[in-house]
Structure formats: C-alpha cells, structure tokens
Amino acid sequence: MNCNVPTDIVFSFTGFAMRGGHTDTHHDGWGIAFFEGAGVRHFVDHQAAIASPVAELIKHYPIKSTNVIAHIRKATQGRVALENCHPFVRELWGRYWVFAHNGDLKDFAPVLDGSYRPVGCTDSERAFCYLLQQLQARFGAVPPSRGELHAALGGIVAGIAAHGTFNMLLSSGTELFAHCSTNLFYVVRQHPFVTAKLSDEDVSVDFSQVTTPDDRVAVIVTQPLTTNEIWTAFLPGELKLFVDGWPEPAPIA
Amino acid sequence: MNCNVPTDIVFSFTGFAMRGGHTDTHHDGWGIAFFEGAGVRHFVDHQAAIASPVAELIKHYPIKSTNVIAHIRKATQGRVALENCHPFVRELWGRYWVFAHNGDLKDFAPVLDGSYRPVGCTDSERAFCYLLQQLQARFGAVPPSRGELHAALGGIVAGIAAHGTFNMLLSSGTELFAHCSTNLFYVVRQHPFVTAKLSDEDVSVDFSQVTTPDDRVAVIVTQPLTTNEIWTAFLPGELKLFVDGWPEPAPIA
C-alpha cells in the first residue's frame, strides 16, 4: 500500500490474512512492515497468518502508515523459520528499506561483498541483499534522485528476474517500487470512494465514510483483494514506482 | 535476558513495562526484540509502554526466546518518534545485532563511513552504527571468535563511554554483551528456583512451577525488577558477556 495520507490497512489485511492458510495455501509464515515517518514497525511470524496472535493484533489495531508491505509465505526455498519470513528490512543511506518477494529464483548466486548478507537461506533475501549492494556500489554515499533510482533499479531488477519469477515490492518510506514477472495488479482508491467487498471473506467497507476527498491510496497485490473494484494488471517485466498513492511515469532511459 | 533454553519474558516484562509511564518517567516510547534462532521479532512503539496495544500483546503472548533486549525511553537526544525507539537492529556477518542504550553521550560525532548510518537522530543509534562499523573494519568478512569479539568490543565500548553515560546491551542471538557506566545489575535464576516478587506491581511467580532443573536465565537491568532476589551490581566500566544464562570470564587482554 502506498498513499498520500497515513491510512490504516485493517480492511485489506483482513482479506489478505485469510490467504495465509484459509482461502489459499500460503501457510509458511507471514509478515508486515509499516513505515511511520523514517521509522518502521516490522512484524513477522513463522506461524500461518490465520493462527497468529500478532495477525490478530494487526487486524484490530489501526496502525496508520503511508507505506506498508505485507507478505504471506509459501516456502519454495528455505525452511519454515522466522529468519526466512518476508518482508526483510535493511538500512541504506540512513533510511530503512523494506522488501518482499513472490516467486522463485533458480541458480541465483551473485557475489556478495559483505555489505549486506542474508541471515536466512531464501533466494528472496539473497536478491534483496544483492539489490542493495548494487545500489550502494552504483551511487556510493550520495543517495540518487528518485528518477535515477527508478532507472538504476530497472536494470538491477531485470538482471535478477532473468533467474525466474520475481514479483517484488520495495519501499524506503516515501516511494514504493513494484516489479512484475507474472502476477501483479493495482488499484487506486480515490474520490469518489465506493464500497469495496473482499474476495476472501464476507466483509465490506464504505471508504467514503472513512476518507476525505483528498485521500488517495494505491494497493498493489499478486491477486486482487476485492470483487467490485477494477484492478489493473502489470505487464510482465514492468517496474512501477508509486508515490502519494499514484503510479509515476517510467523514467526516460 | 540471556538463557540456556527458550524462556518467555512475560513476568519480567510486566514489571518493566510499568516503568514506561507508571512507576517511572520513561514514557517516550519503548521497544523489545526477541531472537528466535537467527530471526528477530522486533516491536517498537513511540507511545508509552503503559498505553501501548503492542505492549499488551507482549504481556499476554508468551514468545519464547534465549535472548531478549527491551528498552523504555526517556528522550535525552532525539525527538519522540518511532525511528528513535530502542532497541535498534542491524545486520553484520549474516547475523542480526540488537542494541539498546541507557544514558547520554556528549560531543560524540564519530566519522561514519556509510556502512551503517543512523536513521533517527539519537546519540544511541549513532553509537551502535559506529560500533558495528568498527567491528567490520577490524575483522572484515570473517566473524571473530567469541573471545576476540569480547576483547575488541571492550576497546570500542570504552572509547564510546568516554563521552558520557553508556549502559548498553548488545546481542547477536547467542551471546549478550552488557556494559555498565553507572547502573547495571544482573541476577541468574537457576535451580532451586524461588518465588520472585516484582518491585513495580503486585505480581509474583513461582519459577519452580514453570522451569526444569536444567534451566538457567540471566536477567540484566538498570534497576532490579524484584524485591526478594539478590541482584549483583556491575562495576563502572565493566563489560560482561553472558552465554547460556551465565556470565563468562573476561577475556585475557
């Protein structure tokens, strides 16, 4: 989720969490990270989301954030363990970066120089460490502009995606990058707001009752969360940048 | 807390959390990190611990861990914000490191080379980044032995502590280092276990009912948590290493 005003994710998370063992088979852990200013609240659990006391907390505690990344895991590489749960968090340029991956990478063994090393044993965390290492090597101590970052990530992400399926989300608190290999959709919720109905549970919310006309919220998912909103599919290979709840145009190469 | 078997901290946390705005004035946020294997559960909140829904979760959800670091904050440097809440987490040598600081550092502005940079604006996070940078510079890509690490940390920590008050805790999941400038105490709970009574709330627990004779738990605090256990005071300038619930002898210099 990427938005222009701090928004709670209780509604979307309620449907999403059902896929962690109930309406889908992603029961090998889950996690969610909320940016609040420069800080991050990071919750991970190796239990299925539907059985997790921490997931219950999130469903009832409206944490407001402009950038949230959540993940439910079906283990493909790496055992079921806390250190293998997404999202992963690292620091670069004095900002936290949050990353989650859906998919599977084959024969992906990049040289890691030690600046970022995986703690667990997933292809995903390896890809995240490699990605940050490449950004640091490319730009050194000086953080790039948003356009430079978007362009550089395009190259790095394409290189990783050549190893398999790499649907991924990456945020450093203001912008949210989303890359599609196979499955990624987004919706922008804005005025005039409608009543949305979850696909995974019999819950609806009338967003017009909980928003102002200036609010804008982009939700990016591997599978649409609601049955009565129009979700836009990403193209395979597309890397989109969301800022203030809106997709930015692609950078000029 | 450092122990030889995964132990829940519900009892000690219940007393500790009362100091976050109730029996003490540390109401500018709080945090706690639990190691589970190589993974970390990290909870931070800029709200006072006594008013925090997340603290309520921790008080009732028995997360079992062999290494836990918790902190309640009284802001001395850095505003009340999520990014300034301890403990802080970073990765070095493919392990997470968790750090919390009690005290205040003056004129502490070390040169940071960019490998670790503070996200917030506390003297504490700056000290943590500097400490990890020095370890990485000293040992490079190869993690040192525990004895080498203890000896190296002794020098780094003494240099930081020369700038003011530096009571601190540091763990990478197996060992826990504790440095005292002014206030630090520890107790080792082991067989035969007694009934302990919290200082901050009218709660007791008979540890013999919830332990086995082989369990050993060290609890290290800035102020003793119970009224009927014998807490050992650290000496000023002392850096102790705890492993499996027990203080190790100091390294030979």
UniProtKB/TrEMBL annotation, chains A, B:
<keyword id="KW-0808">Transferase</keyword>
<feature type="domain" description="Glutamine amidotransferase type-2">
    <location>
        <begin position="1"/>
        <end position="253"/>
    </location>
</feature>
<keyword id="KW-0315">Glutamine amidotransferase</keyword>
<dbReference type="InterPro" id="IPR017932">
    <property type="entry name" value="GATase_2_dom"/>
</dbReference>
<dbReference type="Pfam" id="PF13230">
    <property type="entry name" value="GATase_4"/>
</dbReference>
<dbReference type="GO" id="GO:0016740">
    <property type="term" value="F:transferase activity"/>
</dbReference>
<protein>
    <submittedName>
        <fullName>Glutamine amidotransferases class-II family protein</fullName>
    </submittedName>
</protein>
<dbReference type="InterPro" id="IPR029055">
    <property type="entry name" value="Ntn_hydrolases_N"/>
</dbReference>
<dbReference type="InterPro" id="IPR026869">
    <property type="entry name" value="EgtC-like"/>
</dbReference>
